[in-house]
């Protein structure tokens, strides 16, 4: 997306820092970055309220997936909902038949995982089968693979590691549903000014506009045989409602 | 568990893991240093290889050991991955070159100045070695302290082999990395201060002990 934008504005170059949503918003608060692309409605809401980030635009979505060993010891395949799948993992965990690796790092994925436990009416923290890795998605997936454990992942990190042959034991066992929708938004950082801010705003408009949406729709197709994200524009009202729900419900 | 209790738990784990790793490494590094302290071409070659390895990136060693300890690795059957034991093994290997190289320096000069004299005065080989070791004890202790400081301050091995699992393998450095990734800079600095304080305290304590013992 940045490449396409830079083609149009030759004098503009973007520098990207890939970090989890929690850190990205912290960098925004410190004024170290001019725009953020994030996916944790509850965290975003808190920073919007404090006036750190403004003019949010939803530009893409996909679904989190619950992955686990193909033997599926907790039997979550065919669960009616993500919360039901988590309940089954909890039961199997208590019975010593399953492990769950959590990101444990306040990232967008971690925040969502916690909200699903809450929906399931369970609190796994401190249970011996519940491992808090405190690491990034890739490291957490590798750990889950080694331990034959379950975890919640975004689809793109999972597919790219699977492609590289790093995850021999893990499979997607549950996906889809409103509970697992993963909404990506872009914001301008309020403290950013001048030309930098102007182009940050323009870039976000570009991402949410027709050209950007087209890129979103095809991203990853070449490498993984299927797109990793869906463009948000056609379902914007619905996504906004879901975003609001997530921002509130996860509090 | 409150945050204070958790920090205490992490600190004690750091001390235990890196302390064990350092002591373990010393059991082979000090004898190795003694052997290398004698002049000789092969010894010189080994010493220079070890010198080069002093600065090995911890993440590289971590990755290599991860491949060994992984379920699909050669040593996978040991089930060491993501345990504190794995960090101990990794850090012990990490600090071996540092302890050996620095201890070797001290032992070399001790061998030169005392051992020959002892032998000339009729001591046998073992007695001569004991004298050389005793004379260089403060220097060897410094080597071990340096080894501990490197072990307790490294991140790559603890992260890759331990996995930073809360309540199981989280140590000070991995907790700092996590705090930074969560944007909790204050907590990260606080943990960093504990880490530095530990290293300084260990170093000063060893120096004081040497002074009490006296030459």
How would you summarize the topology of this molecule?
The complex is a heterodimer of chains A (251) and B (215).
Chain A: H1 2-8, H2 21-29, E1 35-38, H3 41-49, E2 53-69, H4 82-94, E3 100-102, H5 108-119, E4 130-132, H6 137-147, E5 151-154, H7 155-163, E6 170-175, E7 181-189, H8 194-208, H9 210-218, H10 221-224, E8 230-231, H11 236-249
Parallel strand pairs in A: 3-4
Antiparallel strand pairs in A: 1-7, 2-5, 2-6, 2-7, 2-8
Helix pairs in contact in A: 3-11, 4-5, 8-9
Chain B: H1 3-36, H2 41-53, H3 58-69, H4 84-120, H5 125-135, H6 137-153, H7 156-162, H8 172-181, H9 185-213
Helix pairs in contact in B: 1-4, 1-6, 2-4, 3-7, 4-5, 4-6, 4-7, 6-9, 8-9
What do these coordinates show?
The complex is a heterodimer of chains A (about 250) and B (about 220). With about 250 residues, chain A is of the alpha+beta class. Chain A contains eleven helices and eight strands. Chain A folds into two domains: about 1-60 and about 180-250, Periplasmic binding protein-like II (D-Maltodextrin-Binding Protein, domain 2); about 65-180, Periplasmic binding protein-like II (D-Maltodextrin-Binding Protein, domain 2), CATH 3.40.190.10. In chain A, strand 3, helix 5 and strand 4 (about 130) form a beta-alpha-beta unit. In chain A, helix 3 (about 40-50) packs across helix 11 (about 235-250), helix 4 (about 80-95) crosses helix 5 and helix 8 (about 195-210) packs across helix 9 (about 210-220). The N and C termini of chain B lie far apart (about 45 Å). Chain B has nine helices and no strands. Chain B is globular, with a radius of gyration of 20 Å. Chain B is mainly α and about 220 residues long. Chain B has a single domain, classed as MetI-like (MetI-like fold). At the A-B interface, helix 2 and helix 6 of A face helix 8 of B.
């Amino acid at each position: 997306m940045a490449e396409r934008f830079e083609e149009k504005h030759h004098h503009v170059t973007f520098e990207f820092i890939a970090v989890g949503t929690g850190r990205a918003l912290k960098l925004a608060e410190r004024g170290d970055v001019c725009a953020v692309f994030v996916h944790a409605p509850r965290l975003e809401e808190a920073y919007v309220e404090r006036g750190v980030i403004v003019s949010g635009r939803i530009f893409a979505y996909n679904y989190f997936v619950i992955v686990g060993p193909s033997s599926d010891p907790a039997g979550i395949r065919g669960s009616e909902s993500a919360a039901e799948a988590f309940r089954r993992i909890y039961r199997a965990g208590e019975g010593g038949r399953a492990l769950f690796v959590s990101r444990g790092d306040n990232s967008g994925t971690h925040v969502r995982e916690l909200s699903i436990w809450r929906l399931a009416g369970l609190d796994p923290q401190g249970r011996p089968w519940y491992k808090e890795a405190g690491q990034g998605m890739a490291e957490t997936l590798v750990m889950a693979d080694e331990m034959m454990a379950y975890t919640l992942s975004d689809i793109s990190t999972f597919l790219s590691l699977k492609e590289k042959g790093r995850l021999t034991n893990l499979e997607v066992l549950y996906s889809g549903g409103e509970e697992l929708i993963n909404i990506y938004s872009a914001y301008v950082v309020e403290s950013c000014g001048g030309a930098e801010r102007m182009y940050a705003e323009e870039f976000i408009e570009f991402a949410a506009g027709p050209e950007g949406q087209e890129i979103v729709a095809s991203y990853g197709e070449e490498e993984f045989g299927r797109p990793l994200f869906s463009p948000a524009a056609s379902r914007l009202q619905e996504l906004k409602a879901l975003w609001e729900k997530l921002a509130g419900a996860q509090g | 568990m409150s945050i204070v209790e958790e920090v205490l738990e992490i600190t004690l784990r750091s001390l235990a893991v890196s302390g064990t790793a350092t002591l373990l490494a010393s059991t082979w590094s000090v004898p190795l240093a003694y052997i290398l302290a004698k002049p000789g071409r092969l010894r010189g070659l080994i010493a220079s290889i070890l010198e080069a390895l002093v600065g090995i990136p911890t993440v590289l060693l971590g990755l290599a050991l991860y491949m060994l300890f992984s379920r699909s690795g050669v040593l996978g059957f040991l089930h060491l991955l993501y345990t504190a034991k794995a960090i101990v093994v990794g850090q012990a290997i990490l600090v071996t070159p540092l302890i050996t190289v620095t201890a070797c320096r001290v032992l070399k000069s001790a061998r030169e100045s005392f051992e020959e004299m002892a032998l000339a005065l009729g001591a046998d080989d073992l007695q001569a070695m004991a004298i050389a070791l005793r004379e260089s004890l403060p220097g060897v202790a410094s080597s071990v302290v340096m080894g501990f400081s490197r072990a307790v301050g490294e991140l790559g091995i603890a992260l890759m082999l331990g996995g930073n699992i809360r309540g199981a393998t989280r140590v000070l450095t991995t907790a700092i990395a996590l705090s930074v990734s969560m944007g909790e800079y204050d907590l990260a600095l606080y943990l960093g201060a504990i880490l530095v304080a530990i290293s300084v305290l260990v170093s000063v304590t060893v120096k004081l002990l040497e002074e009490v013992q006296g030459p």
